## 1
Amino acid sequence: MKKNPPLQNTDTFHKVRSRLIDAFAKLEQRVALALHSAGKPVKGDTLGAKLTTLKAQPGHVEANYDRLAELVKFRADLVHGVMTFVDKDGERFACFRNARNVILQVQPASLVNYRSLKEMAEEIERLSSAFD
């Protein structure tokens, strides 16, 4: 019988969340520089809009735009939601409820374990290197 790993404490979740936010920030910097190099104004658009604009450019950087778009959807909950915790079946999950949904009767939330947050940070770091 396989044992569950010990529950991650809140500090480890905060550290990996910080790493993930930094990975998104570095991605956004790289995308902004690529847009600037393409002669496109870098406005206050969302990261998703910047990626869409960059993808539409002739000779645009080859990157996995579809996967980045999926990850960017989660970013909104990550940065605009308070992180709370849920323990289920011997595993701790981080729960993010986006502030824009606070007025809804049923509030959608993202529920993610530590390993997934860490893997997302690593994936974004890897995918954003396409813009170097």
Note: The first strand starts at residue 81 and ends at 88.
## 2
Amino acid sequence: MSGPMTIYHDVAGEQVQTVVPLIENSGKGLFYKKCRSFLDAIANGD
């Protein structure tokens, strides 16, 4: 998987998308990579 991850969700009744940049692969698998990228984006305000 390459490129950013896009999350689609509803805010105040409107569908919006949030783009989350992916971290480098650490060899722990795709699920770990997606979760770590999401948590890092929250922590860094990306």
Note: The radius of gyration is 12 Å.
## 3
Amino acid sequence: MTPIQALFLKCHPVIHITAKCISETDDYPPEIPGHITKFLEVHITRVEFPDLNADFVPPGFNINARGALYLEREGRHHWMKNQLDINVNLALPPLLAWVPEDVLLNILQSVRITLLA
């Protein structure tokens, strides 16, 4: 994954993903159309930051993501569609208590834009 840089720290996160191919229509989530023959379900199970010192890793950091990839066909055209739901929980470490809240929000916003760009 591309490195994340916030403040003066740079790290390469390690993301553990499980993927499962589902072709039984009984197991389809409601957002997947019924005419799709199979789809790939993905789930982020764990995120690690091996480059960071333990003091800089937020103790309450958690990413939970679930999604699906499937092929939508319309005549001769094919489109790869996806559905992705990401939840990020973050409790900042006491070390960052001196940073004003609006500065932290701007930093988190820039990290989010970098990751989703």
Note: The first strand starts at residue 4 and ends at 6.
